[in-house]
Structure formats: C-alpha cells, structure tokens
Amino acid sequence: MKPLNIGMLGLGVVGRGTWKVLNDNAEEIARRAGRNLQITSVAVRDEDKARQWLNNDVHVTTDGLSVVRDPNTDIVVELIGGEEEAFDWVMEAIAQGKHVVTANKAMLANHGNEIFAAAHKKGVMVAYEGAVAGGIPIIKAVREGLAANRIQWIAGIINGTTNYILSQMRAYGVTFDEALDQAQELGYAEADPTFDIEGVDAAHKLALLASMAFGIPVQFDKVHTEGISSLASEDIVHADRLGYCIKLLGITRRNGEGIELRVHPTLVPTDSLLSNVEGAMNAVLVEGDVVGPTLYYGQGAGDLPTASAVVADLVDVTRLHSASPDHRVPHLAFQPHALSDVPVLSMAQVESAYYLRLRVHDRPGVLSDISRLLADAGISIGSMFQQPYGDEQADIIFLTHQAVEGDVDTAISQIQALPFVLSEVIRLRVEALL
Ligand code: HSE
User: Would the pTM of this model clear 0.90, i.e. be above it?
Assistant: First the structure.
C-alpha cells in the first residue's frame, strides 16, 4: 500500500522527536499501521537549521499554509505550539479535508469545540494524545479503555515543571525561585514558565480530560486555576509534619448536579500513590464506577515521550484513514449530539477538606473564638497544632473535615476580621484520593 504522507508544522523539540521515532521505529510502526508513514514536508521558521535534521527528500519551507494545502499531504501534524497561528492552520487543514495530529493543549483548550465541530462536519480526525500528560496514553484510556464506565472523578499531576519544583522544595528545602531556576536549567520549564507555575498548562489539560470523562464541551474558561508561585515554603513543612505533601493537582469530579473543575496546590497524604510521583513525572488517577480506581504514570513532557503519543496518533489515523467517519472514536469520547450541558460548579459549591494557617496574638480565648466561627459555619476541625512565633504570637494550623467551600469562605472572612488575627488566613485544599 502507498505510504501516507505527513506534512509537519514545526520542528522543535517534539517535532524532532517525532522525526526520530518515525525513522528509528519505522519498521515496527509500519507493521502496526499496515503501511509506511513518511514525513514529506515540514514548515519551519529557519530552513537552514531544519536541514541539519532532515533528509534531502523532505520538502522544507517557511510557508505553513503550503504544507497544509499540498494535495500530497495526507495528515497534518501541528507541533508549532501557541494558539492563534496553530488554530488557523489546523482549521485550514480541516477545510482541506486533511486529518490532523496535534499536541497543542492551549489551542485545544481554547478552540477545541470549534475545531472538533469542523472536523466532524468534514469527516476528518483530529488526534491529540500528546496534548495531555505527554507520553502517558491517558486520552486512549479515558476515551476508549474506560468506555464502559460512568467516570466519577479524575485527579492528576499533569504539569511536570510544577511537580519538579514542589518535589525539590519538599526534599531539599530550596526556595521556589531556586527550584524554578533548576527546572529551567533542566529544560522542564519554558523560558517563560508562567503557564506552568500559574496552573494554566494544567488547566488546559484538565479541561480536555473533563470533557472526555463526562461528555461535556471543552470549558477551559470555567476551570478554577491557582498555581504554586505564591505557595509558602512553610506550608510545605507544616503539611509534611501533618503527614501530607503538596502537589499541584488538576481535579474534576461529579458532585451533585454539576462538575467540579479545578487546578490548585493540594495536600495529599504522604502514603498516597500521587504523593510518590516525584520530579517531572506525571500521573493521572481515574475512578470509574465499574472498574474502580485506575492509575496512569509516566513522562508528561519531553521530545521522545511526547513523540510516542504523536506517533501513536499517527498509527491510529492511518488505521482508520479509510473507515467511515461514523466508525471512528468521537473526538471528545461521546457522540457530538450526545454532549451534556451539565454545569461546571462554582468553587463555592466544591466539597473538600481544608488546611488553614494563620498568625495570631497568643492570648486566652483565641482558639475558642476561631473554633466557634468554624463550628457556626458547619465546619468540623480534624486536627490542629500551634507553633510559637516570638514570645507573644503563634501560627495556628487547622485541618478540617470535608466541607463546602462556600461555608469555608464565610468562616475565613469572619476569622480574618478578628482583632487578634495578624496575617492573611492561608487556605489550601486537602484530598484523600488514593
Ligand atoms: N510544560 C509542560 C510541563 C510540558 O511541565 O508539564 C508538557 O505539557
């Protein structure tokens, strides 16, 4: 059978990884796909640089649209990253009737609904395994492997940079800035790591996971997103003393009439599976009603792990290339006409346990006043400890039992107004998970 021709947009870290994997494992890949896969054209910013990597028979150009519109291109692989230009090229590829493989989570989080609708209408596939958790086949697992289940929740460490930073802070007591510098030196964090450390990258991925888990449209704008840049080292130390470590988690869960959708630093028990995911590794826990808990672990970024996902998508697209569009896996796991409008809940409706830390004047009645406000809001204290700060002040740390966040907000604002409270009340969420 004639080889399938790939037009690639971008030859950065993942693009070069994809080139390498397609060459190194060409025979094995062809045995799986049923035909050869070959990169025939590549669009790049710097043609000379690209030539150092590619064979002479690959057409290299700076004109991405020419690759997308080339009648010889069967599949467009979009690896330029960023949002708008990638979106334009992907939409043009779809309009040209080409299948698309992309690892671009920002583009899909922001424009996924439009892209998938256009692809469905045109009868082409848009595959995106590399967009979530790099080399972990989590999209395959959620979309296909768990198709029998009503998925209850997903909780994942889906940003390697922040997991590396938190691991270093906890293990070696380094500051956030020192750990971030290390992450950049090691190539985990971007030169501009804002999306990583502010939780935006994890929120992009979570919006896609939630959509596939619950059959809802992609709703990145509704993800509650908190990063780790303002996380204090002392909270990592206090959490450790309480038997927890802090991870940046993406959590999505069915809760009453809606879906929780949130990314934030989270205390998880030190003996839980997720707490043992260290460094830049990713892990995703998925709980289905039939299967129970399942865990997926691996490298969430990097040239070869992400290329592993991109090439797996290429094999899938190749196998299903000539299948009727109705026989392919729906982009968001559920048939497009069967997507649900179940609402995403506000944070006030979320249920979690909480870690609270505040500094107070150390004098009689302080603890009882705070406890009363928590009790009045219906919040039960699980444990607490106090640490002196100088002669007359103390830091108090509470762990609550499960509570509704709106009630916790109320209690915090009342506690904050007490005359003996000297600091902002720090609030972190606590999840037992597995
Ligand atoms: N910057 C991302 C991370 C890369 O740290 O996980 C993969 O999306």
Answer: yes
